[in-house]
């Protein structure tokens, strides 16, 4: 016998806006009870000595270190642009004023 009642399954189905027949309600009650049991068994694992983690493998950041390097000045960058306006790149409008 399922610990989830047919009415509870019907309530969840109603929240999900799913129409189920009586046979489907009985079937899903048993299936959902099994799923709840499987999830409960995970909490029974003896993991008190295992620290919480986001990934089972040790990961390190592989990005390069930040280094200050010479770059273009604003004037040099705008000198190469097809158009500029008010010390900014001028680009075609893609959205209307509306």
From TrEMBL:
A GO BP entry: translation
Keyword Ribonucleoprotein attached: no
A GO MF label: transferase activity
Keywords for the protein's UniProt record, in alphabetical order: ATP-binding, Ligase, Nucleotide-binding, Protein biosynthesis, Transferase
Catalytic reaction equation(s): L-glutamyl-tRNA(Gln) + L-glutamine + ATP + H2O = L-glutaminyl-tRNA(Gln) + L-glutamate + ADP + phosphate + H(+); L-aspartyl-tRNA(Asn) + L-glutamine + ATP + H2O = L-asparaginyl-tRNA(Asn) + L-glutamate + ADP + phosphate + 2 H(+)
Main enzyme class: ligase
One Pfam family linked to the record: GatC
E.C. number(s) listed in UniProt: 6.3.5.-
Recorded coiled-coil stretches: none
The protein's assembly and partners: Heterotrimer of A, B and C subunits.
Reported function: Allows the formation of correctly charged Asn-tRNA(Asn) or Gln-tRNA(Gln) through the transamidation of misacylated Asp-tRNA(Asn) or Glu-tRNA(Gln) in organisms which lack either or both of asparaginyl-tRNA or glutaminyl-tRNA synthetases. The reaction takes place in the presence of glutamine and ATP through an activated phospho-Asp-tRNA(Asn) or phospho-Glu-tRNA(Gln).
Similarity field: Belongs to the GatC family.
Protein name as annotated: Aspartyl/glutamyl-tRNA(Asn/Gln) amidotransferase subunit C
Organism name: Dermacoccus nishinomiyaensis
Taxon lineage: Bacteria, Bacillati, Actinomycetota, Actinomycetes, Micrococcales
């Amino acid at each position: 016998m399922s610990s989830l009642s047919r009415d509870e399954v019907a309530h969840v189905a109603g929240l999900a806006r799913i129409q189920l027949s009586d046979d489907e309600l009985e079937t899903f009650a048993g299936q959902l009870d099994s799923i709840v049991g499987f999830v409960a068994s995970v909490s029974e694992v003896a993991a008190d000595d295992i620290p919480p983690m986001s990934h089972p493998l040790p990961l390190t950041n592989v990005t390069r270190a930040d280094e200050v390097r010479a770059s273009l000045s604003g004037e040099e960058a705008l000198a190469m642009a097809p158009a500029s306006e008010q010390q900014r790149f001028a680009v075609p409008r893609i959205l209307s004023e509306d």
